[in-house]
Amino acid sequence: MTAETATPFHDLDHYVALRRLAGLWLAPDGSRLVAAAQQLAPDRKKYVTSLWQVDPSGARPARRLTRGTTGEGGVAFLPDGSLLFVAKRPHEEWPEPPESARSGNTDDTEDPGSAEAPTGDGNDADKPALWVLPAGGGEARRVVARPGGVSGVMVARDAGTLVFSAPTLPGTKSADDDRERRKARTDASVSAILHESYPVRYWDHDLGPDEVRLFAADAFDVDEGHPRPRDLSPEPGRALDEGAADVSADGRTVVSTWKVATRQGDHRVDLVEVDTETGERRVLATDPDHDFEAPRISPDGRWVACTRERRSTTEAAGDVTLWLVPTNGGEQRDLTPELDLWPNEPRWSPDGHTIYFTADERGHSPVFAVDVATGCVRRLTASGAYAAVEPAPDGRSLYALRNAVDSPPSIVRLAVDAVDQEAERLRGPEATPTLPGRLTEVTATAQDGSDLRAWLVLPDGASAQEPAPLLLWIHGGPLSSWNTWSWRWNPWLMAARGYAVLLPDPALSTGYGQEFVDRGWGRWGAEPFTDLMAVTDAALEVPEIDAGRTAAMGGSFGGYMANWVAGHTDRFKAIVTHASLWALDQFGPTTDVASYWFRELTPERALANSPHLSVEQITTPMLVIHGDRDYRVPIGEGLRLWWELNRLHDGDPAELPHRFLYFPDENHWVLSPHHAKVWYSTVFAFLSWHVEGAGWERPELV
């Protein structure tokens, strides 16, 4: 590969240094966009997020707004255009006295800014605080700090009422109380958590001892004032964990998800309305058979749009629709009854007549518009996957982040009155790397006659005369789709090493209708497996593919399928299994949300679909990868798989064909840039050994 033809994907150092978009927000008057972009810290050991101003007209280049050493996020705009953001930053001015010294203060009045200098344990110095950057420019100023940090910031569009969430120790009555209890735990070296409900963990972090609470504060003067937050949920338990909320334009109410514990360690998700003055709470939507998520309040405050998901059972998969809830307690209704897709991320038009949303659809995730009065649905975009949709206040445009399997996220503008349009790209801070290949599609027919499709990445130089080895890459989820760009699971890094990469959507994938999901529900080792093999067979008919050099790889559910493939076929020369489910009877009770698991797989089904029962049939070399801080697929799965592969190897230990890459301090995804490089370097070496016959070369640093 010459310097002229090399791409960032040919060099891992270059690749991890690419700037990456991570969020988008529009100012209330539509005059500017703010984007979040991640890039390497100076020590190259982590990513930090900075905020950039983007011109909605596309005329001016993006301009960097923040340069904090630990990064910024959690963006919201005040009505005057001032920018709120969350960050960990040094704070050297404390204009207000301590909470206990303020005259007239009571135990249930929250600290607006934390007055103590951050000099000891139990203070707010190392937690994210809320900062404001005035619309007219100047220095950012800290306006709210909490002992457990600040997150989930929202602002009422018209009134300027501030709403945020903050982790708070149970039973505490004030910020000072919370701070003192944290200091006492630190001084006593106590990290124990006493749980009174399930679950106890989520993906890669513990739930507790903090409880998430909602706080509200009236509009404040950007230059001088400090908001005085009111606790809206003093005893929430686990109700607000991983929740979502929205605040009305007049600032009087917050609509939030609210988890309600049910039998056998499960829970349902309701919608509640909370008065921002009194904290009075009432239920807007509840149903024992459905969960309500992603609430958005209409501009006039009369309606809440949300997603309603049918709770899965062992007999039926979940189903998602766009749901309309009147705030006055009237009749609720389904806005998309005829749409055989799963809507998400609803956003209201400024006039309240239209709701915009996205939904997976056949390898894409377009933007759709539904007329609230008629239920008529239009698809606005032709290709790509969209997120962070922001309607312009003039009602004529939408702004969003667009990405695709062959395109990293970029900032785009859409016309609201067009259908199947190609988005107009704006001048953002994101990277636009040259790809080392091209993207095409493969189609096939399943054993039951279902139509199947997959993306196929072909590397530069692949031809019928010089065919490329094939890597089958199985997506996670399993309720997911290969339709977006992924910085973590990136096929173009493999293409740069000469591999064609097959990205199929088998049974259980989203974007192909409810029946396509249902056909794989509770049958992980059946249709999902046979679909993968059918699409692989079709890919091997492509002239640019070398059928004699194939491998398979997957993470999470994809890792489960990689393990299942290993025990049910010997057609591949190597298999890479990351964060994989191995013994389903063991996995079910130990994953972070076991209650969801048992709504799909009974103990009998779990055993019938468990890869570990076919370990005796595995002859393909396997690279096992797992992070110790993975709570979704606990490390015991990887440890047991690695032991059983070793137990069955009767030959010389020095000739063991398998390898185990273990990350003691990584989670489900392996996110730090230096460990991502180790991950890919090890995968490259393993595939080169078994697919290319190059011999084993241990990667550096491991």
Account of the 3D structure:
This protein is α+β, with helices and mostly antiparallel strands and 702 residues long. It has a domain at 437-672: Alpha/Beta hydrolase fold, catalytic domain (Rossmann fold), CATH 3.40.50.1820. The protein is 14% helix and 32% strand. The longest helix is centred in the C-terminal third of the chain and has 18 residues, at 673-690. Mean pLDDT is 93; it is low at 92-122. This is Dipeptidyl aminopeptidase/acylaminoacyl peptidase. One of its GO terms (molecular function) is aminopeptidase activity. Residues 485-691 form the Peptidase S9 prolyl oligopeptidase catalytic domain.
What's the SSE blueprint?
Blueprint: H1 12-16, E1 20-26, E2 33-40, E3 47-54, E4 63-64, E5 72-77, E6 83-87, E7 129-133, E8 141-144, E9 151-155, E10 162-168, H2 175-187, E11 201-202, E12 205-206, E13 211-217, E14 230-231, E15 245-247, E16 253-261, E17 267-275, E18 281-285, E19 290-297, E20 303-310, E21 320-326, E22 333-334, E23 343-348, E24 354-359, E25 367-371, E26 377-379, E27 385-391, E28 397-404, E29 407-415, E30 424-425, E31 437-445, E32 451-459, E33 468-474, H3 491-495, E34 500-504, H4 514-518, H5 527-539, E35 545-555, H6 557-568, E36 574-578, H7 584-590, H8 594-597, H9 603-608, E37 622-627, H10 635-647, E38 659-663, H11 673-690
Parallel strand pairs: 33-34, 33-35, 35-36, 36-37, 37-38
Antiparallel strand pairs: 1-2, 2-3, 3-4, 5-6, 6-7, 7-8, 9-10, 10-13, 11-12, 13-14, 15-16, 16-17, 17-18, 19-20, 20-21, 21-22, 23-24, 24-25, 25-26, 27-28, 28-29, 29-30, 31-32, 32-34
InterPro entries: 6-blade_b-propeller_TolB-like, AB_hydrolase_fold, Peptidase_S9_cat, WD40, WD40/YVTN_repeat-like_dom_sf
GO molecular function, one term: serine-type endopeptidase activity
Domain Peptidase S9 prolyl oligopeptidase catalytic: 485-691
